[in-house]
Design brief:
This protein is mostly helical. The protein has 15 helices and two strands. The longest helix has 29 residues. The chain is globular and about 65 Å long.
Length: 389
């Protein structure tokens, strides 16, 4: 929006050409999202408190969490407002990747909103049923996966639909270009062609998986949001490189025309996340709820797919991966031992993983900060794949 205004003004005042630089607009998007969060955060928290949209706390969880009962939740709406407004202001709205990532983010945010609203407003402990939640996550994920299969393969907006019709007319046998192959980090020329259906399946799994992984991690004050900011900022760097023909060629990464514009989105995500952390830091004034966790996880997955860095997302989001695996292993082992021995047994004292460490004696702030440190190290390790290959 503001980019179009700057381009119009640049016809008479050349100084406005500076807004054509993606890096500048990414910084401005970060600052704008941060400012929106600071300005409107208190009002959003007061509104949530007035509506009695408070968090319910498990009685079988850590006893220190009982004091959190009633803390306003659904604060993820503040993140989405800041992220959405900032992106619309500073991004190039003619860019196909900006719109699909926004659709994924707000689509998953809508699913989380309905789930949270039913839980805290209608006092329905089940919220949105697991089947319904998975169905709508799958719908948004599949639509995004199909669109990304063609938009990444096409050099510009106009070629997307043309490529789709070529694929249909070929009897669904049209080969996708090299840009859609699965890239293995640390190797110069190792990549695996996925084909159309393989790419769609991978994209679907990445978006849905990352969304639920962030949601599982969101259990302590500030635990999920800071790793999201760190991973999102790093993915913004990868997106910038992928969208730059010179840098992508030098670093041996696939060139994806238009992908660089997602750097602005990632900047807005980082600013919105840091602004939310101001209110979510211990002791939290507000929780993000599913509306924030599902949306942010899906956004990370979508950006990683566009930048062709699915494996790097797995590395940098190691905390999210560990939290998810801890739940899967705990549930799987419990069901297995109950069937075999008649009594369910556990691997961890409590799942997800952060609760296990709390039960072993770690303070909540210790768990959060240590998980942040691990994420910083993993993000640095992921960024090293830009050059080490």
């Amino acid at each position: 929006m503001l980019l179009e205004l700057a381009q119009w003004l640049a016809k008479d005042f050349r100084g406005f050409n500076v807004f054509g630089y993606i890096t500048l607009r990414a910084v401005l998007a970060t600052m704008t999202a941060l400012a929106i969060s600071f300005v409107f955060g208190p009002a959003v928290i007061r509104w949530l408190a007035a509506k009695k949209i408070g968090q319910s706390v498990r009685s079988d969880g850590p006893q220190t969490h009982l004091v959190k009962a009633g803390t306003p939740t659904m604060g993820g709406a503040l993140i989405l407002i800041s992220l959405g407004v900032s992106t619309l202001l500073w991004a190039d709205l003619s860019n196909r990747f900006v719109w699909i990532v926004l659709i994924v983010t707000f689509g998953y945010g809508a699913v989380g909103w309905v789930d949270d609203w039913r839980k805290v407003v209608y006092r329905n402990p089940d919220g949105l049923s697991a089947r319904a939640k998975f169905f709508w996550q799958s719908v948004v994920g599949l639509v995004a996966a199909i669109y990304l299969a063609f938009s990444i393969s096409a050099p510009n907006n106009e070629k997307v639909l043309q490529l789709f019709f070529q694929w249909v007319s070929s009897g669904f046998t049209l080969e996708l270009p090299q840009q859609t192959a699965l890239i293995v980090p640390f190797f110069k020329s190792v990549s695996y062609p996925l084909g159309m259906f393989g790419f769609i399946l991978l994209t679907y799994l990445v978006i849905v998986g990352s969304s639920n992984a962030v949601n599982l991690t969101d259990g302590l004050d500030g635990l999920a949001i800071m790793p999201t900011v760190l991973v999102g900022a790093a993915l913004g760097i990868f997106a910038y490189v992928a969208g730059n023909s010179v840098f992508s060629k030098y670093l041996l990464l696939p060139y994806i025309p238009g992908a660089g514009e997602l750097t602005v989105f990632c900047g807005a995500l980082a600013g919105a996340g840091l602004g939310f952390l101001w209110f979510n830091a211990y002791p939290a004034e507000v929780f993000m709820g599913d509306v924030g966790a599902l949306a942010l996880g899906a956004a990370l997955g979508a950006v990683a797919v566009v930048a062709r860095q699915e494996i790097v997302l797995f590395i940098m989001g190691g905390v999210f991966v560990a939290e998810t695996l801890s739940v899967m292993l705990q549930v799987g082992y419990f069901k297995y031992t109950k069937k075999r021995y008649g009594e369910g047994r556990r691997i961890l004292r409590m799942a997800p993983l952060h609760h296990h460490f709390e039960q072993t004696g770690w303070k909540e702030t210790q768990v959060v900060v240590r998980f942040w440190i691990i994420t910083i190290l993993l993000v640095l390790f992921g960024l090293s794949t830009l050059k080490i290959r």
